[in-house]
Design brief:
mainly alpha, Glycosyltransferase, three-stranded antiparallel sheet, 20 helices, globular
Amino acid sequence: MATRIKMILSLAICAVLALVHLPFTTAGGGEGAAPFDYKKALHSSLLYFEAQRSGRLPHNQRVKWRGHSGLADGLQQGVDLVGGYYDAGDNVKFGLPMAFTVTMLSWSAMEFADDIAAAGEWRHVLEAIKWGTDYFVKAHTEPYVLWAEVGDGDTDHYCWQRPEDMTTSRQAYKVNRDNPGSDLVGETAAALAAASMVFRRSNPHYAQVLLHHAEQLFEFGDKYRGKYDSSIGEAYSYYASVSGYGDEMLWAALWLHRATGKASYLDYAVDMADEFGGTTWAITEFSWDVKYAGLQILATKVLLEGKHPEHKATLEKYKAKAEHYLCACLNKNGDAGNVNRTAGGMLFVRQWNNMQYVTNAAFLLTVYSRYLTSAGQEPPVLQCPDGPVHADKLRSLARAQTDYVLGANPAGVSYLVGYGTRFPRRMHHRGASIVSHRGDGRFIGCMQGYDNWFLRRGANPNVVVGAIVGGPDHLDRFRDRRDNYMQTEACTYNTAPMVGIFAHLHGETAITKKS
């Protein structure tokens, strides 16, 4: 989890620290090496969401070192806020990144449903999504009220405790008419709309409940506009909405159009395209905060399907901005600006938790290549300033980024924890770094955790299988230290897009083996 203060201090510290540059080794997937086991990576990635669960854990919980936690969340405010996910290595439940995580899990499930099912993981994907959506339904207590956060980063960071032991504040914070949060509300609407499509066949009643909440939230976000971090100061230092709320509202409108087929939502995305930046912002990153590239690709999908010719002019503008992002990733943007790459080939946006940009780029590149191919144009190409790029090139770059995550990098390290033999052993993660509550139920106090566990040099006693850590710097260097939170802390939104990509690559590999 990133704070503004931490970021400033960390950048200064990292400027003088000598990072360990591990020698190059091939962990698989390279020339002459065994291919990566994408099925195992998929299986691992879904275990990670069980490790991040808050609330009363179910009987079929597979991550056994975790226990119940946060069972009184919301009690002080008279609401039930038990459940949901911890965002990273701490014990706070932040609504904005949690909602984005669920949106990306749902998008993964929609796009790659057959591949996920073929790998035997469909039930686990549904469970991961539902753990989040159940919480959002609880948190939406009134049409114009959404509970945004439980706990606060300041008191949480003062202590180093397992979630099962936490004694820090569990104050809950909400947005409403008087204290709006259109960015948070819009992202939650997007998550629920996307998830409703995933559950439509297996649980149609539940899907309708999610869609009802999504439509109410969209109305709330549009009617009472404002940034959530202006209403909830406790969120500003940790998950500030730098991009504002325009991108989330367009994102929500496009997801609701896809989920409902209602023309009014597409009309909204067209009418507000300029004011909210959808057709004016050319962005080279996609994240829990900045949704423009993702929503521009969703709008382009509508264009490629040719269903709404009355909106073609505006959708073409969306497409131009979507292609700016994709061409930037491909290093084909000419003077318009490209995404930097390390010598080892990793897309590099910024020093703090760069892997979130890598995994999201891999997802968007793959999805867009599928949309191009499905559109039936021959050949399926992306038009970049430096020339046309075939859809295959988008998939190749996505696979290269995925393989970098799994170990095809200069350090020879898998940044997917628990995969392979060389992966981060000292994650910045409270629950992982302290002996399991199930193994030793004795209470561990606020500062006791720092004294006895945080400062230890040894490996964490618990492995957070499936977590994708922040990853290496611009020189492909990585320091596996618990206090190096910029590189060793993992976040749910790092792994969420890779659920679909791992499934897709496993499916492609299986087809190749058969042929």
